[in-house]
Specification:
This protein has 398 residues and is of the alpha+beta class. It is built from 8 helices and 21 strands. The protein binds fe (ii) ion (FE2).
Length: 398
């Protein structure tokens, strides 16, 4: 693999048109930034000098802003109130510590805030994930290393993946994950996100759909193309933005990188506004404020005005040894059916009790789920036998 056009450990948002061999190498941690230094050495002594709840709430808000956690001083107090439902900072802090299973008895209010910020990862950088983003050069061979997992998106026809014992055609608008050594060969654009510290599994996906299956912020949707195998594992996503979106400014604790596969828009960051065009590739360092915006008028008659493939090197979602579909749906006591229902997985149709025949459907739906989440986003793509086509293998891949 040639690495012409390498950017190593970037500290700001990068976007550029797909360019053969373009590489973002994030294997080494970025140099410790001023923000990281502040987070690791934040001085909480000022909190201990006040006993006024209002002043303490203000100091907490100032701290979150200076630590780069939020850009709104009022967010500290409002978040505590929303999370706990309680009034008064003492009750709120104690409730948070209890619910987060923090058993250390705080010596002061300031210490309580310090414990809360430490346990919510506000005082340290998130774990580093060694990652590389690489643009396959059409007509060349991209060698994928052993000991890593490679996630890919294929933008055109005319490519194959060569593994040790087979050759797999990969057609346009499809995705894959490959554990271990392989080669990408052929004339297509193919972006590969390699996680060097993770052993995934190899599988090949179908076409990326036209609209997402999960709600995301601000009216956007998302589909987990390659879900985490275990909680915390990497994932590959398709992210969809309707026309006229002004996404709320936000950050992520780990990198995000990907490719614009449909439509166009703008990414707004503190370092400027960056046009996003179909075919662009992007890389977002951890904890970088950003928001994706779309134009009011759609370019095409599609639900999504901007669709991007987004790789995440980690997650806070996925099955665990104690919580996974095989185990959760294995019943040998009534107790297990109760626990399954508690998880919200009772798929049996709700049957109103005789005395409750007036119950409307809206009253038996989950209270906190937005309307859109109850609708099926699964698009219908009926397969037609006469649409099947044979993709010719590149000459050097046979
Ligand atoms: Fe984001």
């Amino acid at each position: 693999m040639s690495h012409q056009g390498i950017i190593s450990s970037p500290e700001t948002f990068i976007v550029k048109p797909y360019s053969p061999r373009f590489t973002v190498d994030f294997r080494s941690p970025a140099a410790s930034s001023d923000l990281n230094n502040l987070r690791q050495n934040f001085d909480f002594r000022s909190f201990n000098e006040t006993s006024s709840p209002d002043i303490l709430a203000k100091l907490g808000g100032d701290a979150l802003v200076s630590l780069g956690i939020t850009d709104n001083v009022a967010d500290f107090a409002s978040s505590l109130h929303t999370y706990t439902g309680l009034e008064g900072i003492d009750a709120q802090l104690q409730n948070c510590l209890d619910r987060l299973n923090i058993y250390t008895k705080p010596s002061s209010r300031g210490h309580a805030i310090e414990l809360l910020l430490a346990h919510t990862n506000c005082l340290a950088s998130d774990r580093h994930h060694p990652v590389r983003m690489y643009c396959h050069a059409p007509g060349e061979i991209t060698q994928l290393e052993s000991g890593a997992t490679h996630y890919g998106y294929v933008a055109d026809d005319g490519c194959v993946v060569r593994e040790a014992s087979r050759v797999v055609p990969v057609t346009r608008n499809t995705f894959f994950s490959i554990h271990g050594e392989a080669q990408v060969v052929g004339d297509a654009r193919c972006i590969v996100f390699t996680h060097f510290d993770y052993a995934g599994i190899t599988h090949y996906g179908g076409e990326v759909e036209e609209w997402g299956r999960l709600n995301y912020i601000d009216g956007c949707t998302d589909t987990l193309l390659t879900p985490p195998l275990r909680r915390g594992d990497p994932c590959l996503n398709a992210l969809y933005f309707p026309a006229g979106i002004k996404q709320t400014q936000h950050t992520h604790p780990s990198i995000r990188c990907g490719m614009v596969i449909e439509g166009s828009g703008i990414c707004k960051t503190p370092s400027g506004d960056f046009p996003l065009e179909c075919g662009d590739v992007f890389f977002l360092p951890p904890e970088t404020y950003h928001s994706f915006h779309t134009h009011e008028a759609r370019q095409k008659d599609t639900k999504s005005a901007l669709t991007v493939i987004a790789f995440h090197p980690d997650s806070d979602f996925g099955p665990t040894d104690e919580d996974h579909p095989m185990l959760n749906r294995t019943f040998f006591k009534f107790l297990h059916r109760i626990r399954s229902a508690e998880r919200g997985l009772n798929v049996a149709p709700m049957r109103p009790m005789a005395a409750d025949s007036e119950i409307r459907q809206s009253e038996i739906q989950p209270a906190d789920v937005p309307d859109m989440a109850l609708a099926s986003h699964a698009p219908a793509f009926p397969a037609k036998a006469d649409q099947a086509v044979r993709i010719p293998l590149p000459e050097n891949a046979k």
